Structure formats: C-alpha cells, structure tokens
Amino acid sequence: MSKPFFTTRTLTSLALLTALEIILSRFLSLSMWNIKIGFSFIPVVVAAMLFGPLAAGTVGALADFIGALLFPIGTYFPGFTLTAFLTGLVFGFFLYRGRSWPRAVAAVAVNQFVLSLFLNTLWISLLYGSPYGPLLATRVIQCVILSAVQLVCIPAIGRLLDRYGNKKG
C-alpha cells in the first residue's frame, strides 16, 4: 500500500511554508508599484524540493491569495496568483527529482524571464493601464537581480535540506 501524500506532517509543513512566504513577501521585501525584490521564493523552493510541483504551486498560490486578503498592497488581481502557482510548479518540476546546477539555472530562467518578466509585467500593465514595453524595460533589472540571488540561494537550500536529513513527506 502506498503512503498517502496528505499526511499531517506534510500539511503542517506546507502551512508553515505558506505563512513564511506571506511574511517574507508582505513584510520583508523591497516593493514599489512595479518592482519587488526579496526572499519570498525560499519557502516555495523548499516546498518544491521536499514535496514536488503541485505542493509548491499550492504554497505559492495560497500565500499570494491569503497575503492579498490579509495584508493588501494594492488591488487583488488573480493573474498574480496564477503566476505564483506556475512559479511553484516550475520550481517543483526542475528541483523535486534533482538539484543540479543546470536544473537550478533552468528553473530560475523560466521563472524570472518568462513568468516574472513577461507574465507579471502583463498583469501590471493590465492592472494599472501602463504601456507594456516601457514597463518591461524597467522590470529587467529586478529579474537580473533576483536571478542572481536565486542562483546563490537555491543550491544552498538544497545543501541545507540534505545536511539536516529532511526526508520527503
């Protein structure tokens, strides 16, 4: 008989990671109306490494939704929740079964230069009525900075999880 995915330990871990993501995103990030730099990706990456794509996507989406309800920064827009879910899926797809440098680079590249740069810029453009092209140009700097930060942090997170013996599930 296979082990159930939704154990009490798994659900508790995912709830704690969701709460941590909300804190990092809403209170410990540098935010302007079109740029956000911080470490809120870390709980999603941990969920991706330990529990896989669906769990990481759920952590990202729930944290965005609950954070927007409890601690609104602006108008709630479901597009950002979709991007948060897709971000977790991408991290999980690349980092759940293996944590190599090429997998980390691929995960960061897709998340930063497809989801964050192109998709979130589209959401910001739609939400605020800003022209897409100039807005895209201003957000490139954020994506380059966060790519570097994530490429340093993701291997370190993997080593910490391996070192302290955290087992999946």
Compact summary:
This protein has helices spanning 8-26, 41-51, 53-70, 78-95, 101-128, 132-163, and strands at residues 30-31, 36-37. It is mainly alpha-helical. A hairpin with a 4-residue loop joins β1 (30-31) and β2 (36-37).
Q: What is the number of domains?
A: 1
Gross geometry: globular
Oligomer: single chain
> What does the radius of gyration come to?
16 Å
Determine the CATH topology: Arp2/3 complex 21 kDa subunit ARPC3
Give me the CATH architecture, please: Orthogonal Bundle
Q: If you had to describe this structure to a student in words, what would you say it looks like?
A:
By secondary structure, this protein is mostly helical. The chain has a single domain, classed as Arp2/3 complex 21 kDa subunit ARPC3 (Orthogonal Bundle). A two-stranded antiparallel ribbon has the order 1-2. Helix 1 packs across helix 3 and helix 2 packs across helix 6. The protein is globular and about 45 Å long.
Present the secondary structure layout.
Blueprint: H1 8-26, E1 30-31, E2 36-37, H2 41-51, H3 53-70, H4 78-95, H5 101-128, H6 132-163
Antiparallel strand pairs: 1-2
Helix pairs in contact: 1-2, 1-3, 2-3, 2-4, 2-6, 3-4, 4-5, 5-6
Please name the defining characteristics of this protein:
Arp2/3 complex 21 kDa subunit ARPC3, two-stranded antiparallel ribbon, 169 residues, mainly alpha
